[in-house]
Specification:
The chain has three helices and no strands. It is an all-alpha fold. The protein is globular, with a radius of gyration of 15 Å. The protein binds adenosine-5'-triphosphate and magnesium ion.
Length: 78
């Protein structure tokens, strides 16, 4: 069996020098648009203080980005 060729992921960072300009709103809607276009999408909310992608998507999360950085939590195991 031939090894499946894995495409290198494209990484995009959404940021701004000012708060409340629509980063989270844009990110969620862009991710939804990409996934509807058959792309596999991973959204990482890097806001250490008030991450809210989960709230807007009505998701219940047990761990966050801080767990990865501070505790070495392995994403693949959760
Ligand atoms: N395209 C848009 N048109 C109108 N209102 C918008 C748009 N995008 C976002 N908003 C509104 O602007 C506010 C801030 O949006 P959002 O939370 O996406 O910004 P943010 O840049 O992620 O903020 P923060 O810096 O606090 O993380 C929200 O009330 C949201 O509903
Ligand atoms: Mg935001």
């Amino acid at each position: 069996m031939m090894a499946q060729k894995i495409k290198k992921p494209l990484t995009l960072c959404v940021t701004s020098g000012k708060g409340g300009v629509g980063k989270t709103s844009f990110t969620i809607n862009f991710a939804i648009a990409l996934s509807r276009n058959d792309s596999r999408v991973l959204v990482i909310d890097g806001d250490m203080g008030l991450a809210n992608v989960d709230v807007l998507l009505r998701l219940s999360v047990k761990r966050d980005f801080r767990d990865i950085l501070e505790n070495g939590t392995d994403l693949a195991r959760h």
